[in-house]
Amino acid sequence: MNRLAMLTAGVTLTAGVLSGSAGAGAAESTADVLSVDFARSTGEFRGGATGTLYGFGDDGAPTQALIDGAHITNTSQKAPYGTQHPSGDAIKVEDGFFHKHGKDMYIYVQDYYPDWSYHGGVRPGDSRTYDQADGTYTSTPNGIWDYLEVVEFVTEAVATTSSRPQDYVFIPFNEPDGGNWYADWGRLKDTFLADWKATYDTIQQVYARHGLGHARIGGPGDTRWQPERSAEILTYAKANDVLPDVFIWHELGIDNLRTFRSHYADYRALEKRLGLTPIHVNITEWGMLRDMGTPGQLVQWLSIMEDLKIDGQTAYWAYAGNLSDNSARANAANAGWWMFKWYGDLEGSRTVAVTPPAPDTVDTLQGIAAVDKRNRRATVLYGGGGKPVSLRLSGLDRDIFGKRVDIEVREITLSGAEGVSGAPAVVKVLDGVRLDRGTIDLGVPTYDRYAAYQVLITPEQDRTPVAGAVWSASVEAEATGLTAATVYDQDPQGGGGWKFLASGSRDVGSFNRPASRADWTVTVPRTGHYRFQVIGGAPGVPGRHALFTDGASPVTVQYTADLALTDVQRWQYRGSSEVTIPLTAGTHTLSLRASLNGTTVLPNSDITLDKFLLTDVTDGEPTAYPASTLRYYGGAHVVYDREKARGHGEIRGAGERADAYVHAWETGYHDVSLDYRSDRRTDVDVTVNGRPFATLSAARPGAWRSTVRLHLSQGINEIEIRSKRGILLQQLTTTRVAPADSAAVTIEAENTVRHGTVAVTTHADATGSNASGGKSIGYVGPGAGNTFEIPRQPGFDRPGAYDIVVGYANAELSGRHDYNPQVIDRRLEVTEDGGGSAYGYFRYTYAWNSFLEKTIPITLTTAGGSLTFGNTRAYAPDVDRITIAPAVLGQPVTVSRR
């Protein structure tokens, strides 16, 4: 039985009062019990636990869809003029951050310095004179403490160049108890306290002279909870009127899952003892490598911070711009991103009491639960346990949920830091369950300790919930038939948490011989096409395997490179590769091999294998996003009191909208369909990734399905739905229409018109490169002369909205750091001769012969103006190929659903 079938078959539910139930005791003996009391509110949803440290690289890295979907409310970034890292400047990323959900932009002022620890770990003196206009300096003392000058020009830059200076929080010192200037507290305590006051006063003086009022300041920012230091700092700060607006320390390590709450309790007790009004807390670095991208780990941390109603930011262990390893590729979700998204979906809710089986215990079942009265939905997010789980749900208010409820259970499983995770699968539905005194006992056999689960409870809907709408199966690589390969145990607590986790705590390596193979026998339900996905790690270089079906018909499985700059990342920083294969109904053996001929290995085939997944894509993998799962703004909400429209989202009038975050496995055309009802003639406006794409319409009252064929980017696409006349939206559905991709035009980069220094690079087959045709172009930019040009041709010879999809490589690094790869996000500019222009920032791809893709949206205004690509200020990424696609094909179609 495949995993999806196991989950679907194994879910049981008993409606009724649990006390005295014969079945409850038996379930508890074999399962972890998570109790949720929806009648006990614990306060408004805070939503600040998924903040990031250097989660933002440059404008568009990560993409706006990833940022908005992840619902990031706070981040810490580099101070203006900072040199600690080459990207992550707060001013440069603030527009994307504040676009929808961003509230608090923190900056590490000491990140002005290029080295770690800062300034060689030694407090600077007065050996420089700084130019306050641009942060440059001369090696001349001027009677002013050098760092105080840094604080002043950083604050001045925020005050004068930010569009939201009131939403910044200045962190003058980062980990001052570590190797950063003040570790010897006995000797340097008085120095730190005086420096705290001096920096605090300087920041306030800058804001005052610009009429900005009080500037928020956070600190002290210690490496861990330091009760003695904290007491002395707060005592001094109170006496000198320099109290921080946000109290900061870090929670890094495995055992912090056990001690976190006690640290917080100690801090609040300290405040009370000192007679202080409670100060907001932000844990500006939390978690270890093992936690990032792993839903079952993340939910343990999030549950603590949401319970305490504090903010927190994922630690910065890898590189800037990927939400701390909680996104994949240029625009895709990994499993961690979906955990962030689920957490952000609780906006507007009130959290309720959750009792885990073992609170304040490392690596155990934990959860978050909330009730959204406006949209009449209750949510439970849980994960982290290794046993089957029994949810004991009580306190469901019949005034909100009625006499019967629908329940949907979704699952997200570990996909690796760079591995793509599709829309979470619905693994169980319960339709029209009767509420008896508001209590439900729900059992879900959760054997995957790294997965997380979302339980969504709503009043009974007119829509019939469906589990497993698209067939899928999976298997751990170590559970396949292995030849010439080795299974390695991956202890989730090994190395002090300084490692990335493997699904099932094991993976397959030493897959580097001609005989190396992994055989999976699987039964598929029908004849058609199936996506085979491998989750594994290609350390630092692209590589290849061959996939045989029943010993024949081999296809190449092409891997892009994964991060491998240190031994910690090598082999463990896992990505994914996907191929589509035809299968007939019945049982097949899928054999992944390191060799095509059994004699020689394929290029860079020494790739770790973690997990295989197989999904039926015959019908375009239709994926539904029900109204009950969308986000609503401006008064739009889900209704349950309308005939034939229970569980529909009402969107009516200016300012109201629903947001959906839809996943595309491939860049290309998809039919986006809206099922809705209307009580009059109506229009529906659809915006995709910030661009108004289509207006759908219904000519009269009724039930309708409107469909528009849109070009979506691989990964996450943000779709906004508005209707001035009003609709009752049942669901949005996306369906891949691969044959329509013929409307797009692809040009190999080596076939473009090259100017200046632009040159063609040939990638030998032995390198394992995924360059199309084995060639790419480089040395694009800097300057106006080093460009490449694409003349207009049929397919994009009309004005209109287009997507320019760039296959690119970017492995540029700048400077060094003890553990952070110092990545550069390269910029590519597109100019239409006689028309407009557009640009995009392109994130790190780990190797110059490993190509990802990113989309630049553009509106062309001429029919014949050539497109010129370059970068006037620096090098652009290397380019493999360019695809230009109309954003919309044809006209929307509306049909009656009667």
From TrEMBL:
Location of the CBM6 domain: 473-615, 745-885
InterPro entries for the chain: CBM6, Galactose-bd-like_sf, GH
Coiled-coil blocks: none
Signal peptide extent: 1-26
Keyword list, A-Z: Signal
UniProt superkingdom: Bacteria
DNA-binding in keyword set: no
Protein name: CBM6 domain-containing protein
Species name: Actinoplanes subglobosus
